Amino acid sequence: MKEIRLGGIPIGDNHPPFIIAEMSGNHNQSLKKALEIVDAAAAAGAHALKLQTYTADLMTLDLDTGDFFIQDPDSLWQGRSLFNLYEEAHTPWEWHQPIYDRCRERGIIPFSTPFHPKAVDFLEQLDTPFYKIASFENNDLPLIRHVARTGKPLIVSTGMASIGEIEELVRTAKEAGCDQIVLLKCTSTYPASPADSHLRTIPHLKQMFGCEAGLSDHTPGIGAAVAGVALGATVIEKHFTISRAEGGVDAAFSLEPREMAMLVSETKTAWEALGGVQYGLSRKEIGSLKFRRSLYISRDVSPGETLTEDNVRIIRPGYGLPPKYMEQIVGRKVAVDAKAGTPVSWALFG
Questions:
Q1: 227-254 mean pLDDT
Q2: CB–CB of 41/108 below 8 Å?
Q3: Cα(318)–Cα(292) distance, rounded to whole angstroms?
Q4: What is the distance between the alpha carbons of residues 28 and 304, in angstroms, rounded to a whole number?
Q5: Cα–Cα dist 53/85, whole Å
Q6: What's the Rg (C-alpha) of the chain?
Q7: Which regions of the chain carry the CATH code 3.20.20.70?
Q8: Is 190 exposed, middle or buried (0-12, 13-18, 19+ CB in 10 A)?
Q9: Where would one find the signal peptide in this protein (predicted)?
Q10: How many CB atoms are located within 10 Å of the residue 42 CB?
Q11: What values do phi and psi take at 56, rounded to 5?
Q12: If pLDDT is split at 50, 70 and 90, which confidence band does 64 have?
């Protein structure tokens, strides 16, 4: 698998998970709020901050009837037109430069999800280091082709996509010149249920497509993300806001700063804990050997005295013979004096 670097940071099993804070529409149409989100994401330790680059007219038609109106009672956005929703959620293009500048000042990598070739061309002017394709656009092969032609790394959420569709998008990207691809397991419901996350797909994605794999997570909290890292996720993306109480189109399934800091910390801990397959004594366990069980004289014995379960016990610490020799030494006579507290050794028998 070709090594992937996102904004200069290496991605893979030998590196801590790469954490993306997704701003989306949580700026609530305030540039000041957007810059505060940048500062908070950087302070929490996220590696990158992701924007979404579109305008409502590049996403849909300005209609509020039929297919263009959200009537699903289970949707967070029920009762709104698609155009109205995207108009509220979009990040004005003139904000991108100051947001990118603030990210770079704070040491966090700025990038974006483009939803149209025009957005890609705009983002190229900002020296965007890599790109993301959202789940709802993973079937837009012309868009994927346009992004791939930049030659920059590409992250793709795989929500709703069949194996055949994923194969097609990966092939399209590679044929267009992109050989650094990260596929994210994603459940495209908002919020998502942990039971619908199916994280065991992550190693399967990696094996089947020869790509790095990660998780775009819409579940509450950080549990699913930590589990994803345990299953091999090398990139984690979570929506991020200053405060869910302030509302916003994505606030309900976004992490707050304290939670993002926990995500960064706990996913790194999960990655560190994976290690490799290991049995037996490790270097750092040597000092703990003394706390194992072993055989000790528990009552003073004299030369010629027979060892029994009354004068030998299996106890801590571990400086005597291992407990497995108990049956061999019971019934044997000692050749020397042995006080209570003497570790049993073969030397006791002459």
A1: 94
A2: yes
A3: 5
A4: 88
A5: 14
A6: 30
A7: 4-55+90-274
A8: middle
A9: none
A10: 19
A11: -55, -35
A12: very high
Other Cβ atoms within 10 Å of 292 Cβ, number: 13
Per-residue model confidence (pLDDT) at position 58: 96
Listed residue (113, 139, 119, 142) closest to 50, CA to CA: 113
CB-based burial label for 164 (10 Å; 0-12, 13-18, 19+) = exposed
Higher pLDDT, 297 or 73: 297
The span from the CA of 114 to the CA of 111, in Å, is 10
* Contact in structure between 202 and 230 (CB atoms under 8 Å): no
Asked if residue 153 has a cis previous peptide bond (ω within 30° of 0), the answer is no
Write down how long the chain is: 350
Predicted local confidence at residue 76, as pLDDT: 81
Contact by Cβ (8 Å): 208, 163: yes
Cβ atoms of 213 and 182 closer than 8 Å: yes
pLDDT tens, 182-196?
A: 999 999 998 999 999
Average pLDDT, the chain: 96
* pLDDT above 90 for 74: no
Write down the CATH number for the domain with range 283-349: 3.90.1210.10
CATH architecture assigned to 4-55+90-274 = Alpha-Beta Barrel (3.20)
What's the pTM value of the predicted model, to 2 decimals? 0.89
pLDDT tens figures, 9-18: 999 999 999 9
